[in-house]
Design goal:
Layout: H1 10-16, E1 28-33, H2 46-51, E2 55-60, H3 78-94
Parallel strand pairs: 1-2
Length: about 110
């Protein structure tokens, strides 16, 4: 797959895909589970993520890979709570600006 997409090997591909985290200037929430079997915690650039004031990093012990569901319980997961707090902080922060409404919309 790498050569078909212009990359000599997986290392070249991953080097090409490295995000430029220092350039992020829009509020970004990054949620990662330490038990993620696809993206290990050792691979997560915690220092780079934490050094950008626009990035909010939430690390959880469990959750797997996209597994932040509370199936059948009706309860909010820790990821749900993190997302709610993130948006609430930024809603309040930008409430006085013309491009955002202070009234939450219904989904």
């Amino acid at each position: 797959i790498c050569p078909m997409n212009g990359h000599s090997d997986p290392e070249h591909y991953y080097a090409f895909c490295q995000p430029e985290l220092e350039r992020i200037c829009t509020p970004l929430l990054c949620i990662h589970a330490r038990d993620d079997p696809v993206i290990g915690s050792d691979e997560l650039p915690v220092d780079k993520l934490s050094s950008n004031p626009h990035i909010s990093l939430t690390l959880t012990d469990t959750g797997g890979h996209l597994g932040y569901h509370e199936i059948g319980s009706g309860a909010a997961s820790s990821a749900d709570e993190s997302v709610f707090r993130f948006f609430e902080v930024h809603r309040r922060r930008f409430a006085g600006t013309a491009h955002l409404s202070s009234r939450p919309s219904r989904l």
